[in-house]
Amino acid sequence: MERQRTGTCALSLHSLWSGGQLEQRNKRNARLGLALGSPLLLFANRRDVRLVDAEGVRGESAIVVSDLEDAAAVDFLYSEGLIFWTDVSEEAIKQTHWNQSSNCKTTSYILRVVFILLLNEDLLTKASPSSYILTLCMFCVAALKEALGTGQTVVVSGLDSPDGLACDWLGRKLYWTDSETNRIEVANLDGTSRKVLFWMDLDQPRAIALNPAQRKVIVVTEIYWPNGLTIDLVEQKLETVVEGTLTHPFALTLSEETLYWTDWQTRSIHACNKNSGDKTREILSGIYSPMDIQVLEAYRQPNILTPCSDSNGGCSHLCLLSPVQPFYSCACPTGVQLKPDGKTCKPGAEQVLLLARRTDLRRISLDLPDFTDIVLQVDDIRHAIAIDYDPVEGYVYWTDDEVRAIRRSNIDGSNAMMLVTTEINHPDGIAVDWVARNLYWTDTGTDRIEVTRLNGTSRKILISENLDEPRAIVLDPVNGFMYWTDWGEHPKIERAHLDGTERLVLLNSSLGWPNGLAIDHAAGKLYWGDAKTDKIEVINVDGSNRHILLEDKLPHIFGFTLLGDYIYWTDWQRRSIERVHKVTAVREIIIDQLPDLMGLKATKVTETYGTNGCAEDNGGCSHLCFWCRQAVNCACPMGMELLSDLQTCVVPEAFLLFTNRDNIRSISLGTNSNDVAIPLTGVKEASALDFDVSERRIYWTDIQAKTISRAYMNGSSVEHVIEFGLDYPEGMAVDWMGRNIYWADTGTNRIEVARLDGQYRQVLVCKDLDNPRSLDNPRSLALDPANGFMYWTEWGGRLG
């Protein structure tokens, strides 16, 4: 409806003239330079995108979309009223719908027609013509300042420096350049099926222009700083502006016989004749920061039938126009291969490299040679370190050192969730048992190797002794072994069964910081990268036949993985991902100058290797299944015990808790189970110990930390109940009926009480200086809540 009203208004103004009157007045107007057919200019202004009529109200422009960060390149799809722009700060391409029914051309056009009308009717010669003009100008200025766009939508994200943008209005594609990654990419208008077209022999590509009718893409690079580029669709010529001939031209566009360009230094838009260069004039000045510019007119995007017009050319994804027969080709999203039919894309990448950076996760297809990294859309990644993948369900698993958690998501980043969030300190290594469906990790803070099911349940400590700085961990589910590195004071590489038993040191000499570890299942070899010796070495899985694969330009290896014939690694100092052929030792760079690189995993997306007895029905185990010694070994998570059937785990009816200085352990009294450590962090020297049956919480005193703490039986929710005013709390007891906790402190010579959460603390008995026999070094403490009595022992200091 709005478009009809605007059109009617313009028609009414035209109808004021007729026949020879119109021709006569047009001649007069032409002499005055009042052209009625001037184009609209669309330009990026960093913090907004604007429209200006090339012959409109001087100094006025209309805002299409505002509140932008750093708009640079701009283009449009006239047939659908879409305007696109790149934002180099937000590293994205965005779009808005242009409200064509309320544009500045119509407004300015009305003003100029009325101005001509007044002029031709000699109204301007009257005494007070200014009131007419002022009223009309105020109306136009108000209209010009209205935002013409309807919001903004992200079309493509995860870019680095998208400096150039061009819309293929026939093929309905977006093309853009990235001067940081030195790439040219293409995608559908909605950002889907994104593909890298060029990634080699480019030096900071900037401006890009399309000629879909001739099926050509034209790009300029930073050599001699050619910033602007446009195409003369009539004469099929390329127009450029090169810095040096003018003050600082940036971008340019063409409308029939006139060139328009933006200038950084003068902060303005200029025009001249495209052939002679004369008739130079200023269109708009005082612009905040003029960037790219386009003529926003329908004739700049003529509608022509192409091979892609009919059913997308038969392509399953991208149909790209070409200047050679058959004048188009089918293409696939980045990293995905085209099937032999030349039309259909495979479901996705078949081999990928998963990368953990500090604040994001990335996926790199290994199927194609461009090695484009795609950021997974996962929120709240603070400090990702280790990463692994499950090819059965398609989940990516990673550790986060700052959040202190283990997380997972789909391979595209969707459905992210927390798996393990308690008693995680510095989880440096992670490994997926894709057969038994278990997840292993190392923690350099707790100095443990632990395991859970892949969904985060059934947690169990496997190894907690004689570990200094455990880091990388890899698994061999077929043969039932796990391998890990330790870069502590006495660095080593070890092996154990998947249940943590029969531990064996494979190597403990000539090691520095063995950060990375990878296993070649087919060849039976272990490879590792050492960040201190700056070498990549290899041994057999039994520890024999050690030799060096690579020892040149490896300043700081961290992440390390193997797939097929290649070993991949990240290097902190070189800020690179590289790979080397494990036989020929030929190396190449995959990604260069990418900071904050951490762990990585090369994997096949859906194909798995090997099987064992845990693959079917979890080996018959109710909780954890380990494949050890070529047999199924069922195990239980913390706080549970295995029944005599050696398959079923239950909560024990009775158990014994005891302290062993820096850890607390439990032994079931109903079975012959070995004692197991409860995964508690921060225990320095535990002394007294008690248990609250109703909440299944352990309470203990720590005479070195001078605290009283509590946690659940599975080790979660560790918290200090009392952490001030203690000296040597050796005795402690829980009143399970009154929900209070009592303790005896030999240092302060006091017996105190508080609620189980530490509130309402009160001294019950203390040493009386006037009565030395009142309390003398109280130690052990016991309660009889049913009868209301408290008992304690005193070491005392007197003889007899």
UniProtKB/TrEMBL annotation:
Origin: domain of life: Eukaryota
Keywords for this protein: Disulfide bond, EGF-like domain, Glycoprotein, Repeat, Signal
Pfam family for this entry, one: Ldl_recept_b
UniProt entry tagged with the keyword S-adenosyl-L-methionine: no
Sequence ranges assigned to domain EGF-like in this UniProt record: 307-346, 613-650
Gene3D superfamilies registered for this protein in UniProt: Laminin, TolB, C-terminal domain
InterPro entries the UniProt entry points to: 6-blade_b-propeller_TolB-like (IPR011042), Cueball_EGF_LRP_Nidogen (IPR050778), EGF (IPR000742), LDLR_classB_rpt (IPR000033)
Annotated LDL-receptor class B repeat ranges: 172-214, 394-436, 437-479, 480-523, 524-566, 696-738, 739-787
PANTHER family named in the record: LOW-DENSITY LIPOPROTEIN RECEPTOR-RELATED PROTEIN 5, VITELLOGENIN RECEPTOR-LIKE PROTEIN-RELATED-RELATED
Name of the featured protein: EGF-like domain-containing protein
Organism: Dissostichus mawsoni
